[in-house]
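so i finally got all the pieces together for this one. its two components total, 693 residues if u count the protein bits. some of the lines might not be protein, just check the labels. i wanna see the whole assembly predicted at once instead of chain by chain like last time, that was a mess tbh
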Amino acid sequence: MWFPKLLPVTERSLLRPFLHHTTNPLLHSSTTSLRQSNLLPRRVSTAAVSPMESISVLMTCPPVHPYLVEALEKRFTLHKLDSVPDKPQFLSSHRDSIRAVVGNAAAGADAELIDQLPKLEIVSSYSVGLDKIDLAKCKEKGIRVTNTPDVLTDDVADLALGLMLAVLRRLCESDRYVRSGLWKKGDYKLTTKFSGKTVGIIGLGRIGMAIAQRAEAFSCPISYFSRSQKPGINYKYHPSVVDLAANCDILVVACALTPETRHIINREVIDALGPKGVLINIGRGPHVDEAELVSALVEGRLGGAGLDVFQDEPNVPEELFKLENVVLLPHVGSGTVETRQAMADLVVGNLEAHFLNKPLLTPVV
Amino acid sequence: MGSSAADEDLPQVLLIKNPPAFAVLGEEHFTSPKFRYLKAFESSLPLHDFLAAHGGSVRAILASLSVVDASVLDLLPEVRVIATTSAGLNLLDLPECRRRGIKIANAGDVYSTDVADYAVGLLIDVLRKISASNRYVKQGFWASKGDYYPLGSKLRGKRIGIVGLGRIGYQVAKRLEAFGCSIAYNSRKAKPGVSYPFYQTVQELAAKSDALVLCCGLTQQTRHLVNKEVLAALGKEGVIVNVARGGVIDEKEMVRCLMEGEIAGAGLDVFENEPEVPKELMELDNVVMSPHCAVRTRESLMEVGRLAVRNLEAFFSNEPLLSEFEDD
């Protein structure tokens, strides 16, 4: 693993315990706060601080998060690619100044961009997913990559459970029923019990485990598919996604998006899940063959779906709009005030750590 | 079905209204060799006239959505048991039943799970804006207007105040603990063996809660239990979820608080004057509403109907009821 110029070993070991805790507030603050809490040596001179303001950081995703944008603008020279009218011209005129990229689930740093930024040192993603970053290229060029693991695990798992309840118990449709005045004409129809349904999880990482723990509180038997069976886990392992789908009531996509997991939900899996089965996707749109999913739902071959992500966000297939067994969310998995702030703090904290030659908070590469 | 001499010997169970379970799932699931149904709802006579004519030897009632009060019981001198398929008992005059030595077989635990699930679903929906943002997407706004705002609020660390820690309240607590919420409660009295903090009044509970979840029955004591003071104590960031009865909340006051931003949101399955819902709520994105359907799953409806039948069979066999209601 490539390290930038480092602190002496003693200071590195001071930081190590704080790098992997989900709730450690120190992770949610910049290295400035770490410094204030006496865990890092004080800066020797202010000369070390001011150069950071002249460092050019390129935000490749739309600047929709005011807290993050402000935090970056306060510390660096921030360029927003989204508002640049002539992107190729901008990139060529700034090729020698841009040293960092900030991306998110929508846009990151692909091979083409990396090639255009020869001074790029670090890509800090405002997401835990890394599918929009060419990791191999970054490794090859010694470019560091960071993401925002752990801080969003709870929110995404909570949303997965919320989607399951919303689909099975028709929460959104019941709300619509009341708002449209239909209750005066008669009761809403019966829905399906959630507790006790078998939940099948694809990917038993941080988010998958958090989903399992919550579903267990509803007495849901848990089964899973993963690249390999996990030792010490009591849940039922299935050696294939089709097998998992055939044996569960609710199938949840909770794995990372890689070339291997693209379209992991295909026609065969959808058929196995069947007209009583429900698909929940809190991973990435490309995990699912969206055209197959849409036709299965429209034709009643799949029982229902709760989707937070899509192939081509923010465009969602309109055939799904009228389906009462489908809940559609605008990629809000990590969408709470608390979590977005924690994610932004990690993005900024990682960039600061890098430019101050400190160990990164949440490095991937 | 044809009647036979044997049938006519069977004791009768009065049905005042057709139970939802029978209507929706089919009466054939709920027949028994031990009794037959006397269907008041099939007669053109008004109820009291029907009972005056036919109620003399009826020993059991299967009550669902009907009021059973002194005037009804006066016409049913032989009734000794009422099996109900409702979750709540507020349509039965409990003191009158007690006075006459009439046992009540309730829905037991059949509904608790579904109601607890629904309460948790409503809470997540309100905090994470699931219905509101689903509406947003289905109107095409994500593509045309951009990302959905405002952001939601995290569940972990939220302090949940459960009003009424009975079977439903307890199941709500167990579920929300798995999301990292902390639980406290108010009930008629503290429950032995329960480690959650107990508060003597709902107002104290509200002051220490981020969300109140109402799981109590509706009685004279709980009518408008959630009033102006409680809502003020809950505060601007507070959320209320009601899966109990509309009458537990001062609805007018709650609507005012929601309109003026004095509480942050609400998830409501029940209302004071169903199916009327205050029209002000229809405009609000921070409110999730449902048409009193927290219990209404196919599975529960089947189970509760079958439980009522088994309770009645036990009664006619002189065996103990399976789910006798004991008012404690």
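Chain A has two domains: 9-151+338-355, 153-328.
The longest strand of chain A covers residues 98-103.
anyway lmk what u think
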